[in-house]
Every structure is written in C-alpha cells, then in structure tokens.
Automatic annotation (TrEMBL):
Domain 3-hydroxyacyl-CoA dehydrogenase NAD binding as annotated: residue spans: 4-185
InterPro entries associated with the record: 3-OHacyl-CoA_DH_NAD-bd, 3HC_DH_C, 6-PGluconate_DH-like_C_sf, ClpP/crotonase-like_dom_sf, Enoyl-CoA_hydra/iso, NAD(P)-bd_dom_sf
Pathway given in the UniProt record: Lipid metabolism; fatty acid beta-oxidation
Domain named 3-hydroxyacyl-CoA dehydrogenase C-terminal: residues: 188-283
CDD domains for the chain: crotonase-like
Source organism superkingdom: Bacteria
Signal sequence segment: none
Pfam families: 3HCDH, 3HCDH_N, ECH_1
Reaction it catalyzes: a (3S)-3-hydroxyacyl-CoA + NAD(+) = a 3-oxoacyl-CoA + NADH + H(+)
Keywords for this protein: Fatty acid metabolism, Lipid degradation, Lipid metabolism, NAD, Oxidoreductase
Protein name per Swiss-Prot or TrEMBL: 3-hydroxyacyl-CoA dehydrogenase/enoyl-CoA hydratase family protein
Length: 763
C-alpha cells in the first residue's frame, strides 16, 4: 500500500504532482537540486509556485503542510520510507540514470520508482539497473496541470512486476482520481504522439487554406468535439517552448516530420511563450484579447467567428454534428476535411505501435486532451464509408486497421482488436456507466427533462437531461414521480446524478423565471417557487435514503438539492455555491433556510458561543455568492458536512453514491423537521448596519444593498424577539423575498444580462 510518496524535481510538473498527492491526503517529500544561498531554494520555489498557481494546484492550500521539502544532496535519505518515488527532473537520460543509481541503494526493497518523462524510452532509463530495480520501475506520465487533466499514462516495461503495475493503477485511479491508460514504450506514448501531431497539422493547414488563428480555434474546439481551448489557446496554456521541445523530441525519436513553421520558432526566440509570458498566439491588452497575425507577428483585435452555419451545428450530438461540420462550404470545410483525414490516417497507422488496444487510444485523447470522443469513436461518428472517401480525396491509402473494420470500430458492446476480431469492451471495476444502463434497457421512467434508471441492487438513479441540467418544472415533476416510483416499487433508495462533463446542475431555469416575471404571472411564479421548496424538502423526508452525487458546476438550485440530501457523495472537483445574489435574487429553494439551520446547529452545543456568528456566516456565504473551488473547500464553507464523502475519481462517483445508499438503507428513518433558532430584530439590526456601511463605502450598489437587506431579513427570521421557528416559516420568508426582488427592474436586467452574456451585471 502506498502511504507516502516522494517527488524528485520541483518544476511545474513535479510541484503539480506533489500538490495533487497532498490534496489526496498523502504525505509527500518534494526534492530538487540544492540552491546556493538557500539549499532548499528550488524545492521551496516549486511549492510556492503550486500554492500560487491559477487554476489552483492544491484542492485546499492548507494541505501544503503534507509536503516536506528538501534538496537532492542533503536530503535524499528522506525518501527512505517512501512507497513510491516519482522522478520529474530535466528531460535528459543521463541525469535521470544518475538519480536512479543513487536511489537504488537507498530505497526500501518494496519501493516503486517511476519516471514522469514525456517521451524518453524506459529501456534507455533503465540501463545499468539491477533486476530488482527493473521489476519495481515503470513510466507514469501525468498531464499538465496534474490536478485537472484526467489522464495518467502508465508505461510498463517487459520486466515491470504486474503487481507493481496494478498497485500504481489502483492508487492512480482511486486515490489520485486519474484515468489510467497502458501505453507502449514508444516516443510520445499515446496522447502526445497523436495530440501533438494533430496540433502540428492544424498549424500547417491554417497556412495552406488561408485561415487566421481565430478561425482555426473556432473550428477546432467544441465544433469538432474538442475543448474550448482548441488548438492555439491550448498551445498558449501549455507553453510554446514546451510545444517546440516536444515536437523536436518526437521528430528526432521517430524520424517523422513534426516541423513547426519558422514563425512559431521566432515567437519562442523572442520569449513569446504563451500564457506564462503574457503573450504567445494570444495577448491580453487592457483587458481585451488580441490575436497574433502570423504573417506580420503583430497582435490585432480578436475577431470572433460566429457564422449562422456554425451556430446551427454547435448543440447537435457529435454523431449528427461531425458529418455536417465536414460538409461546411468554402475554406472552412476544406480545412476541416483535410485535418480530419490526415489525423485519422495517422491514428490508424500508429495505433498498434503505441497502444495495446484502440479503447486506450480513445481514452488517452479524451482524458489527456479533453476530446468529447476519442479518434476511433469520432471516425465511427463520421461513418467509415465516408472516412474511406475522405482519405481517397486527400491521396491517402486506407490503413490495414481500417480495412479490418466491419462497418465500425465499436459494435454492440465490442471493439475491434488489432487482430481483426471484435472483443467485449473491458469492464472497469467500480465504474457504473449510465450510457450502458440505458442501452441495456434499464430506464424506468423517462421524459425530455429527466429519467429514472435502475442501478441494480434496489437502487434507482434520477438523471437530469436539460441544458446544463437546469432545474425547471419538468425536472421537478420527474423528481416527484421518481420518489413515488421508488417507494411504490420497493426500491431501497435513490441517487441523483448524471454523466454531464461540466455541470451537475447550473441551477434553476432562469429564462423561464424571467419570462414569467415579465408577463406579470406572479401567482404562477409563487406556485413554482413553492414547488421547488417542496421538492428540496422531499429529498430529506422521503421514507428511504436519497444520496446526491454532485460534481463540477453545482449552483443555485443544484446546490439547494444537494444541501437537502440525506448524504452527499461529491466529486473532488466541485464548484458549488448559492449564487442567486449575482442575478439579483436570494436562494429560495430552501438554501437560505438550510445554511442558517446548519450554522446555528453547529454552535448550539457551545453555551458561550455567540449565535449571531452562525447568522453572519450564512449571510456572507449567500450575499457574496461564494463558490467552492473543490469539494474540500465546499466542506470548509459548510456546503458539505463531515459525514458527506468525496470521490477523487469522477468515473467512480455513481458507484460510490450507490454504495452509500446501500449503507444507509437497512436502518433508515427520515429525520424529524427541526425547530430553528432565529435572532429577530437584534440580528437584523446588525446586518442592516453592515450592509449600510458597505454602501456608504461605495463597495456595493443601491440594488446590492436591497438584495443584502432581503437576505438579512430572512436569516434573522424577520422583526421581533429571538425565538424558535419552523422550516415552513423560513421558507415562506424566502419565497416572499425572492418574489419581491424578482419584481424589480434591476433584478430583471441582471437576469437578462446573465442569460445573454454568461456574466454578472452590477447595476
């Protein structure tokens, strides 16, 4: 079992790996070469870099205390009790080999050693090492930033002990939250070999087809099923120096052409290395983004590519979108067809050389480069007949692997092996696929907005299906039907979760709320808010356990549903917040009530505690619309309780939530509705003064002040003496305050602005 990890090399990757391991609660020793004035200077700098990194490298900066720093001359013996040592030093074989020679006589016999090299062959690194060392050695290639990119490529050698490989795979998946892929010991492994080839092709074809950087990024992002950063923004984030280094190494190691245009090399020479240097393919000028004109190497105002034909395609599923994208007219279509043809051809040619199966190829590009679907799934989406024609159009021979395919690379739960036969898709232990459940006929109830699925063992799952999983009338109606179904059919409990890549739920359906407000349909709005509150409470008071499995964006109403669950099984990357104040409202699905209840209950056992501290804490959380940057921070903020659990790996989230239901079910009893202590006029006076002081200091607007006063009124329980009230009393106050604010012109302007731009309006 891995209980302590050593990382040698405190550069960007090494410090990022150390931060990830520490975020998982594992002690880390972080070493680097000695400095001159301060012997630990470089390791210290690495730790400081990780603490200052944006996006944050640590899930909670306080966990940096798990990291012990030192240098490789004075403190190598700190690695003696480590169970796994990751080498992440300079990308040259000789220093790595010298380090391994020193480690071999120092580490305990069971210690695993791995290299984070991005491409140096393992066989080269192992020259001169003993049989015992070789058995405990492999490549572990993390992707930058290690916290956020899901992929961890494992590169075993023929001598790597299978037990060592399995131990690292298990630790990587369950403890560090990575998606692990076995790669062959070939230059660039899987993801970089194919991903970097695609980037080089995009740069070259941009010149050939006369496109701009803005146009290429508009075409090679979500339109193709790739991340928003597309081609050039991704390169800026990675670093142009890194791109130059990797392409040079791949060219030298493979003998293939990875040449970048001369103007890219010139940018590197001039220090225009991307995000870290303030300029690369893009540059920010007075808050505005400017784009490089590669012909002049000058920056020009960014030109958004927003053509009607592109807008019409964006929201289509990939299988419908991709064929139409490649049919775009003019230079855009010509560019995309050639890019797809060349990258698909290269993938088909190299897959067997670099991977053990094509499933690993797809996973590597999905997890390492953020593709919606990997290259083989994308080829299936296009259709193999169309792919044959596309290759022929560009003078490319159909590779042997394509000729082996019988209509598709994936068929009915099988995939095409390199041997030409179809094999069952590998089952990942502890992973539940909702997509697979649907294909197996496990859907119990279904509507356009949501569905109820059978997870097995008497556990059901409610899945939202709206855009960004927004909660509206249809979702709430399906929730009520699902709760009734689970009880009537004798299921033991319910999970609420989904497989959306971005959002558990971005909150209530703001467009519908604004429309009803503008029409003046206040009775309908009051009923809708009451129904939302009822739905939240039903999660808590149903006669069986309800476990919510939030991840990613969990905002507004999505957060309120989460707060009312019997238990939460959250993904570590949880961005949770009651953000209604940002659109001129307050949480009215039980969120305001719930935060007051939680924080006052926390203080109740301490007679000397000031009860106003709980009120103030809830006010600050709601009025400032604070959002967590991880599940660990969500716990500190009060959105998660001590009994709520965290899954480091999103792939295991649904299965972990199901397990939690099964734990709670045997002796489950719903809780009694609580009585809540409110402080009345005393708390309200304090909060009113604080809001007024912020307005006087010019830190908030008049409308911000009004929102703050409404939040204060609810959290104080209105005017009057301190007393105990029911949940219903506070829910009534929530609803009244929500409708009052919604009736104001400024709140409606805020909602309209957010719906149009995705950004808050301060008016």
């Amino acid at each position: 079992m891995i209980k302590k990890v050593g990382v040698v090399g405190a550069g960007t990757m090494g410090s990022g790996i150390a931060a990830l391991v520490a975020s998982a609660g594992i002690p880390v020793v972080l070493l680097d070469i000695p400095g001159q004035k301060d012997r630990n200077e470089y390791a210290k700098r690495g730790l400081e870099r990780a603490l200052k990194a944006r996006p944050a490298a640590f899930m909670d900066p306080e966990l940096a205390r798990y990291v012990e720093i030192g240098n490789t001359e004075d403190h190598l013996d700190k690695l003696k009790d480590c169970d796994w040592v990751v080498e992440a030093i300079i990308e040259k074989p000789e220093p790595k080999q010298a380090l391994y020679a020193r480690l071999e006589g120092l580490l305990k016999p069971t210690a695993i050693v791995s290299s984070n090299t991005s491409g140096i062959p393992m066989r080269v690194l192992l020259e001169g090492r003993s049989e015992g060392f070789r058995k405990r050695f492999l490549g572990t290639h993390f992707f930058n930033p290690p916290r956020y990119l899901h992929l961890l490529e494992l590169i075993p050698t023929p001598e790597t002990d299978p037990k060592v490989l399995e131990e690292i795979r298990r630790f990587g998946e369950r403890i560090l939250g990575k998606g692990t892929v076995l790669a062959k010991d070939r230059p660039g492994f899987i993801a970089n070999r194919l991903g970097v080839y695609g980037m080089v092709q995009a740069v070259r074809l941009m010149e050939k087809h006369g496109l701009t950087i803005d146009e290429v990024d508009a075409l090679t992002g979500p339109l193709l099923g790739r991340p928003n950063s597309a081609t050039f923004r991704t390169a800026d984030l990675t670093g142009l120096d890194v791109l130059k280094l990797v392409t040079g190494e791949l060219a030298q190691a493979t003998g293939e052409d990875f040449t970048l245009p001369e103007w890219v090399h010139r940018l590197v020479e001039e220090g225009r290395l991307g995000e870290k240097a303030g300029a690369g393919f893009y540059r920010r000028v007075n808050g505005e983004i400017y784009t490089l004109d590669y012909r002049t190497l000058e920056y020009v105002p960014r030109a958004k590519v927003d053509l009607p034909e592109l807008r019409a395609l964006r929201d289509l599923p990939l299988r419908e979108r991709l064929p139409k994208v490649l049919d775009l007219p003019g230079k855009y279509g010509a560019f995309l067809r050639e890019l797809f043809a060349r990258t698909a051809h290269y993938t088909l040619e190299k897959a067997e050389e670099i991977a053990y199966d094509l499933v690993s190829v797809d996973q590597a590009l999905e997890w390492g480069f953020g593709w919606e679907e990997g290259p083989f799934k994308s080829m299936d989406a296009l259709g193999l007949d169309r792919l044959h024609a596309l290759l022929k159009e560009h003078g490319l021979e159909a590779p042997a692997l394509l000729q082996k395919a019988q209509g598709a690379f994936y068929q009915d739960g099988t995939y095409l092996g390199f041997d030409g036969a179809y094999h069952p898709l590998p089952k990942r232990e502890g992973v539940i696929s909702l997509k697979a459940l649907k294909s197996e006929g496990k859907t119990l109830l279904e509507s356009k907005e949501a569905a109820l699925l059978d997870l097995g063992d008497g556990v059901a799952l409610l899945e939202f299906r709206t855009k960004m999983n927004a909660i509206g009338e249809g979702v709430i109606r399906m929730l009520q039907k699902s709760l009734e179904y689970v009880e009537e059919k004798g299921y033991v409990g319910l999970v609420i979760g989904n497989e959306d890549p971005r959002a558990f739920s971005a909150g209530a359906n703001l467009a519908l709320i604004l429309s009803l407000a503008q029409e003046g349909d206040w009775d309908e709005l009051a009923l809708a808010v009451r129904q939302f509150q009822k739905a939240s409470l039903s999660l808590r008071y149903s006669p069986f356990p309800v476990v919510v499995a939030p991840f990613g964006l969990t905002l507004g109403g999505g957060a309120e549903f989460t707060l009312h669950a019997d238990a939460v099984q959250a993904h570590a990357e949880l961005y949770m917040g009651l953000v209604e104040a940002g659109v001129g409202l307050l949480p009215a699905g039980g969120g305001t009530k719930e935060m007051l209840l939680r924080f006052t209950q926390e203080l109740a056992p301490y007679e000397e505690a000031d009860p106003f501290e709980g009120v103030k804490r809830a006010f600050n959380l709601i009025a400032l619309a604070r959002t967590s940057t991880s599940a660990l921070e969500a716990r500190k903020m009060g959105f998660l309780r001590d009994r709520d659990r965290i899954s480091m790996n999103r792939d295991f989230l649904i299965a972990d939530a199901k397990r939690r239901v099964l734990e709670l079910a045997p002796d489950y009893r719903p809780p009694l509705p609580p009585r809540i202590r409110v402080l009345g006029s005393e708390a309200l006076g304090n909060l009113r003064y604080a809001v007024w002081a912020f307005r006087e200091a010019g830190e908030i607007s008049d409308h911000d002040m009004r929102i703050g006063l409404e939040i204060a009124y609810v959290l104080s329980g209105g005017e009057g003496p301190a007393r105990e009230v029911s949940e219903e009393f506070l829910l009534d106050l929530e609803r009244e305050a929500f409708l009052k604010l919604l009736g104001t012109r400024k709140t409606q302007e805020r909602i309209a602005h957010t719906l149009k731009t995705g950004k808050p309006l301060r008016n």
